[in-house]
Specification:
Oligomer: single chain
Structural class: alpha+beta
Distance between the termini: 94 Å
Strand order of the largest sheet: 1-2-3-4
Helix content: 40-55%
Strand content: 15-25%
Shape: globular
Length: 153
């Protein structure tokens, strides 16, 4: 008969101990978590997505597809950034077989301002971006492509 009481006694003791040791939900309410800080890359991505949204009417690609921001690169000066704009099919979630666009962002007055290829400021930012962010060869190609696209309109 002692053999049957011992396991029940152990279980009751263990449950009681767990109730004392494991914190309840109310104990977490005493110390609220501080809000998570937004990283510089997240701020840049937000600025780029805002620029995409503002230019949506100017670009058929952004009207038809969602945009994913990839490969955010921040210049050593921490006041310039670039990122790839990848078109994504909103129905399937798959990347669209198209060349990604290049977004450029500059930090002004403590906030990031971004331009996408359909934005008139984009060419100015491409020309002004530091060489650590956009090489001279890449800059030449981007400018040439932008000028060719302007002529086609």
């Amino acid at each position: 008969m002692n053999k049957r009481r011992t396991p029940a006694f152990i279980w009751i003791s263990l449950i009681t101990l767990l109730m004392l040791v494991v914190p309840t939900g109310s104990s977490f309410a005493l110390a609220p978590r501080p809000p998570a800080e937004t990283s510089e890359s997240e701020l840049i991505e937000q600025a780029i997505l805002s620029a995409v949204e503002q230019e949506q009417a100017s670009s058929l690609l952004t009207l038809l597809y969602d945009t994913r921001v990839e490969r955010i690169q921040i210049a050593p000066s921490m006041d310039w950034a670039s990122a790839w704009l990848v078109p994504v099919d909103p129905q399937t979630g798959h990347d669209v077989p198209a060349e990604p666009g290049l977004a450029v962002a500059v930090k002004l007055d403590g906030g990031w301002q971004a331009a996408v290829p359909s934005d008139p400021r984009w060419l100015e930012l491409i020309q002004a971006a530091p060489v650590e962010l956009i090489t001279d060869d890449a800059r030449s190609n981007l400018i040439s492509e932008a000028e060719t696209a302007q002529l086609a309109l």
